Every structure is written in C-alpha cells, then in structure tokens.
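Honest question from a wet-lab person: if I give you the sequences of every part of a complex, can you actually get the arrangement of the whole thing, not just the pieces? Trying it with mine:
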Amino acid sequence: MEGQHSFGEYKMKNSAVIISIFGACSVLFAAAQDTQVVAPATAGTLKIISSLPRTGSANAQTNTMVNGIKLAIDEVGGQIDGWKIAYEDMDDASPQRGNWDPAVEAQNANAAVKDSDCIAYIGTFNSGAAKVAIPILNRAGLAMVSPANTYPGLTKPGFGEANEPLVYRPSGKINYFRVVPTDDLQGVEAANWAKTLKAGKVFILNDRELYGKGIADVFQKQAEKLGIEVVGFEGIDSKAANYRSLATKVKATSPDLVYFGGTTQSNAGQVAKDLRSGGYEGMFMVPDGCFEQAFIEAAGAANLNGKTYITFGGLPAEKMTGKGADFRAAYKLKFDADPEAYASYGYEAARVVLQAIAQAKTKDRAGILAAISATTDFNGVLGKWSFDANGDTSSRVMSGQTVQDGKFVFVKVLGN
Amino acid sequence: MLDFEVFSQQLITGLSNGMIIALIAIGYTMVYGIIELINFAHGDVFMLGAFLALTLLGALGMEAWGPSGQVFGVALMLIGSAVFCGGLNWSLDRLAYRALRKSSKLSLLVSAIGCSFVCMNLGLFWGGAPMTVFANGNSAAAPKNFPAIIPQINLLGDGFLRITPADLLVFTVTIPLMFGLTFMVKRTRLGRAMRAVAQDPTAASLMGIPVDRVIGATFFIGGALGGFASVIYSLYNNTIGFQMGTRAGLDAFTAAVLGGIGSLPGAVLGGLTIGCVRSMSDQYLETRWTNTIVFCILVLILIFRPNGLLGSTRREKV
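Yes, you can. This is the full assembly:
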C-alpha cells in the first residue's frame, strides 16, 4: 500500500516534469517560428485548397502566388476565432504536358469536394482549367476564388460562347469569384494605349488559347473601333522552334505595332526575338500573361529594350499604396524577394476567403460562400472594391509598363 | 518589297530550318536503319546538347570574347556537344537497349520512351543550375535565352531580304557534315560494317563483324549529329528549354518518315521539304494551318509511296 502510493506519486511527479518540459519546448518552438504564442484552436479545422500549375513553365508565377496565400494565412496567425486554418497547395499540371492538365484539375476539384474540411478553393491560374473546375465545385456548393483567370466568359454573359457563363453553374448559384479584372477590360485598354502610342497599323497574333485568343479578339475589336488598321490576325503554333517565316510575313505588311495575345508559356519570348531577328523594328505589345521576369529572360533583354509594352490588370507591387505597400513590405520581409505580378492577387484571394470565415464563423460551405459573395468595400491591395452580381471584382486599376535594361518599368496607369 | 523578295526570304528561312531538322532526322534514320528502333530519346539527347552548349558558353564567359574568339567558341561548343551527345546516345544503347536486342521490338520501344523521359527530366534539373546564363532565381522549367554570339544582323544591308550570319552558319556546318557522313557510310570500313549489320545482323556476325560495337558506333554518330544540330539550333533560335526536344524530335521523325526511314538522303530531303512547306504555309496560308499541311503531305506521301520519298522498296522483315 505504502509502496504503491509512493510509486504513484513518483509517476505523477515524473509526468509533471515531462509535461512542463513539453510545455517549455512548445513555447520555445512557437517563439522560434513566429515570435508570438497563439491560443490553441478549438473549434476545428477549416481548409483552403489552392490548385495552380506547380510543375512546368508557369512555376515561377505560381510560387509567388502560393507565397502570397501563405502570407495572408500567417497574418491571421493560422487561425480565426478558434478555427485552425489549414492550407493545401495542389498542383494542376502534369509533367507530360508541362502545363495545366484538365484531368489533374478535375481530380483536384473532386478531392476538394470530398475533403469535408475544405471550405474554399483558390485557383486556377489558367482560364481553361477554371472551365473544368467551376462546375465540379458548383455542384458541391464550394466557393472558388481565382487569383488569375481573366477570360470574360467565365462570369460575364455575352463575351464568350452563347451558353457561358450559365454552363458553369449547374446548381444555378454563383460559386466562382475573381479578384482580377477581365480581358475585355484589359484588351480595350491595350488598344487605347496603342492609339496613344500613335500606332496606325497593327498586326495581331495570338496563341490560340482561351486567354490569348480572347484578349486578341477584344484588342482587334477596339482597335477597329478606334480607326487603327488591322493588317493581319494570326494564331501561332506555340510549340514551334521559331517564328522566322511569320516575322517575314509581319514585316511585309509593315505594321507600327505587333500585338501578341499570349503568355510566356505560349512562347512570347521567342515571338519577340524572331520579330527582331527577322528585321521588324516597330512596337511590340503583350498582355499580363507576359508580365513576369521569365518573359524578359526568354526574350533576351536586348530584344525588348524600348519598344515593348506590357499591360497588366493591376499595379506592379512597387507602385502600390496603403494596404498594397504593406503587403509588399511584409512579402519582402518573409520571402526575401520582391513579389511578382500575381503574388498580390494570390494574397488578395486568400484574404477574401479569410475575411469571409471571420464573418461567417461556420464550417458550413454555404455560409462561407454567402459571406464571400457579400464582399463589399474590401480593403484590398489596389484600394477598395466589391464583388459584383457576376462574381467579378469592381476594381478597374490597370497599368502599362515597358522594359528597360532587363527590368519592367512602370509607364502609367491605364483606364479610369 | 516585292513578292519575289518575300518568296526568297521564306525560301532561305525554310532551308535553314529544314537543314536543322534534317540533321536531327539523320540520327533517327540511322538508328532505325540498323536496329529498327525509333529512338524516342534522340530529341531529348539533342536538347541536353543545347544545355551543354549554354553551360560552356556561360562557364567560359564567351559573350565577352571578341569576334574571332567567338568563332573559336562556336567550334568548341560544336565539338563539346557532339562528343557529349554521341557519348550519351552510346550509353543509352549500352545501358537500356543492348540487353533488349533479342526481345520484342515493343519492349525496345517502351525502353526508348522511358529514356526520353529520363533525359527530359535531366534537362529540367540542369535548367535549375546556379549559373547566370540560366537566369537562376527563375524556375528551372522556364525557357532560357541563348545569347546571340552569332549576330542576327543583315549581311545584305538595309534591303527587305535578309541573310544573317546565323543563316550562313547553318549551311556551312550542316552541308559538310552531310557529305562527310555519306562518304563514311559509303566508303569506309565502319560504313560497310554498318550496312552489313543493317541488312542481316546474324550473317554479319558470322562474317566476323562485331555487331554490338557497330551498333554502338551508329548510336554514337547519330547522337553526335544531334549534338551538332543542338548547337546550330541554339545559335539560330536563341532559345532553349527542357521541352524543346519533343517538338524538334517530332519534326525530325516526320522528316525521316517522309524521306523514307532508313535512308540518309531521304532524311535530308524530308527535312528540307518540311522546312520549306512550313515557311510557305506560314506566308501564303495561315500559321495555324501549318501543322495540318505538313501532316497532310505526310499522309498523302505514305499512301502513294509507303516507303517514303527515297525509301527502299525492301519488304518488311518477317
């Protein structure tokens, strides 16, 4: 009896020591990680899943977007009102394609639907991938916020196919939102800018993808409206080794400006290079799909100097003020690099979801969805904006840049 | 500009592109001719050659060399890449294909597809190497700019028609290589041995020909031509990337089939045909039809001449 008692006491002391050691360790760990000790989450886990092309050539852009998402989650200490915020970074690319893959995107969306913790889906990067994911998530009533899709037909009636965007909403409700302005706005601004640059004749190229062809079409329409002569409109083969023949054809029509609707991934660098080596000396304009350092590196800085113009549906990080400037400083501190163009939209998309969680205070997908769609006067990196009835941002801030000595240089704010 | 000038320009571009395709196509056709294997890894070996060239260029700082130094630099890259690609192709045969020589053609083919993936991923890792020429800090997968050390200036002055030093390089390197290869296959001891093995490996080995060594040599030579092609391609297009081998390989393979797979002059003819058809289609039709046109021509030729333009009428071995 006596022995048993002392044994029990010894055991108790021992476990108390162990517990206190553990406690100290966890405090130390927490201190080492974040220098702030957070109260334990009790209510449960809410998971945000992102689906972006993490393998292949869009990897540089998506790295910076994922960083933006992580930064937003870190800022709330990884939890809201006792809910632990989990994050899963899914890849929608396959090595075979080196780019987004419809099969993988569908798989990701289905996995998100099945994951009972998942309350929001951030993605996709490519508008084509969004076409696959939206209906799957829509049936499950899961909210989707895209930081990068700019194809208008995903949300706006009258810009894409006749059955768009209703075809993406089998449940009849809107579950898809985006924090970037669409191509119908950017293409128009690009053509307006071409006009102020005194381009009388333009040759329009596109990569025959949803994004590139879409924005090139808008550019063409607006150019014609402004009285700019369109001397050619061609879809390129984005896997070709070079575009020498095309450059000759372009040069033979002597345009003042060549517009390329496409991305770094669809060979914008090679197009720029071959236009120059083919002897074309006029202006060259591209949309935001080329607004990344990889474009300059692929094209060769010398080929872009001076006469290259890039439009972007937003502002470069160094031109942001207010919340945007805070974001840039925090990003630099955490990742020791400047955020690329889309990092701010990754951050913005995550913050929209986090704010909705804070307001809805529920694990119910419908509740979160309602809170996201009710987002109004959101204090975003580009100023205050709201989601409209289609799920689009009301933000219209766009910018034009050029390239000098291998760096993007901000020229002016477009539109407004 | 005149229509004639546009046409001539497209012809020059078509021939330059065609020469590069032809050089790669020879690698396919030689290997197919001797062991009836479509060496899918060939395009990716070619890609790795381009990465070696860019690595050499960056490591030795060739951009800063004077014009005569750069000519030496180009020669160095040509030799380096040729030896490297030849060696790599030879090793693929030694490691992945030789053991399967007696098994079905299908296992050999699958093995080649596997090698292709391995090489492509090597290229992906290589692209992430910490060198300024690879623009590190960006992703390994991003396309790399290959500095234009052979300038893309017009040698004909200010006119519409352009011939650049890069165009000249393509012709001055590929044409002698093709003649050299033809001479080697037709006149040398090794060439005779290769033709003997191609006709009947068993009989050749009975005559005392070291069949495996001859096949290895064929892989080496095919790979080396791919290496030459990779440097010329890089200097001509000024962009390389880990996926470039897939497309270049497809074009070259099409050229080899078009010309008659197994035939060396056929591969050259096929390459030039594809290069010129591409240029003309880009100019006089629309770019988006170009691939369709190329493959329609391929289908038509294979319907009316199943062995390709210059293919032998030899029956399929049973």
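Two things worth pointing out. Chain A touches chain B through 40 residues (CB under 8 Å). The first helix of chain A runs from residue 2 to 34.
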